[in-house]
Structures are given as C-alpha cells and as structure tokens.
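hiii, so i know i said id send this last week but things got crazy w the move. better late than never?? heres the sequnce for the chain we talked about at the cafe, plus the structure i predicted for it. fair warning i was half asleep when i ran it
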Amino acid sequence: MLNIRAMGEKQKYANPMLGVFSGLLGILLATTGMSSSAGCPCNYTPAKLIEVIAADTLLLQVANVEETVKVAGIRVPRLESPRASGEAWCKAEGEKALQARDYARTLLMKASEISLDETERLASGDLLAVVYIDNVSFGQELLYQYLAVETDDTPNWCP
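okay and structure toks below
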C-alpha cells in the first residue's frame, strides 16, 4: 500500500527519538563533505599534472604556465647518487626513490583535483608549495607510507 502525504503535512514517527535521530543524521551528512584537516582551500591555486620527476618534484601546469614544484615539508629518497656532494647513497635508497615516485605518480594521476598553497619561489626558479590532492596533503600521504621524512629529519634510507 502506497502512503502519500499531503504537501506540508509533518511526518509522524512512532518513536519520538527516531525524529531526533533523523535530524542529527541530516546534519551529519550535510557536514561530512567539509574538510577540517586542510584549512580553507578557497585560496589554493589549481594545478594540472604534467609529469612526476621525483616524489617531491613535480612538473605542473599552474595558471597556464609549466612550473617545477618542490613539495614543501618533506624529503624523499634520491634516485641517484649526488656525485659532487659526497653524501652517502646506496642502491636501497635508489629503489626506495623509485617506489616513492611510482606511488606519487599513482596518487596524482587518480586525483580529481590538484591544488597548491605556494610558500615561496626558490633561487632555482622552482616553486616551493604544499600540494593537495582532493583536499588532502600530498606530502602527508607520502609520510604515511614511509616514503618520505619531514624536512627537519635526517633520513636513513640505507640499511
């Protein structure tokens, strides 16, 4: 049997708590789309992926200009040994760098929205920015997967 109510007629619940529950559920559903972890994305700059150079170095189209963007706040393993610097490097670091780059590529290619919170322009001309994918911090995602360390930490990629 189909029950059709007249327009404007209030729905009656057998249990008054069901009405309260229904109202709370409506409020919850209305607010779950809001992100509380990333701040206001209203002044972030939209970007489009061109290429992932390394997990922390991206080639993005920003305001119709190709920009090399360094991801702020993280350090990732290096793809190859920095010959001139004399810093320690091992094959395990290179393998971890490939894993990090592949994971970064997967995340960025699946993202429906990429945006930047620019922090500064480096002397090299690259942008240093916090990168967001679908309003989630890209750098944090790499940290969660142990594919990056925070900028002020000393990485130990070699066993």
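btw The longest helix spans residues 91-110. thought thatd interest u
miss u guys!!
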